[in-house]
Design a protein that fits this description.
The chain is mostly helical. It is built from three helices and no strands.
């Protein structure tokens, strides 16, 4: 995926004084391109259609949670 010139210039300017949001504009543009153009084309591509036909019917699978729970340590416990 290619970004337009104005987005490229904005990124170059933003990384001179980087922040956590210096790539947000580019990320939003790329997401939009993927949503409107690349992903719909992929869904109709020969490779995707071939793979989905070969895969068979979908099955229900149970996934493990990847979330973590951090409990507070009781007072008086040593640091890790």
């Amino acid at each position: 995926i290619n970004i337009d010139h104005s987005t490229k210039v904005a990124i170059e300017k933003n990384i001179l004084k980087p922040t956590t949001s210096c790539f947000d504009v580019a990320q939003n543009k790329i997401y939009g391109l993927m949503k409107r153009d690349c992903y719909p084309r992929f869904l109709t591509s020969d490779i995707y259609l071939t793979l989905t036909k070969r895969a068979g019917p979908p099955t229900m699978t149970r996934r493990r949670s990847r979330s973590f729970v951090f409990n507070e340590r009781p007072e008086g416990t040593a640091a890790w």
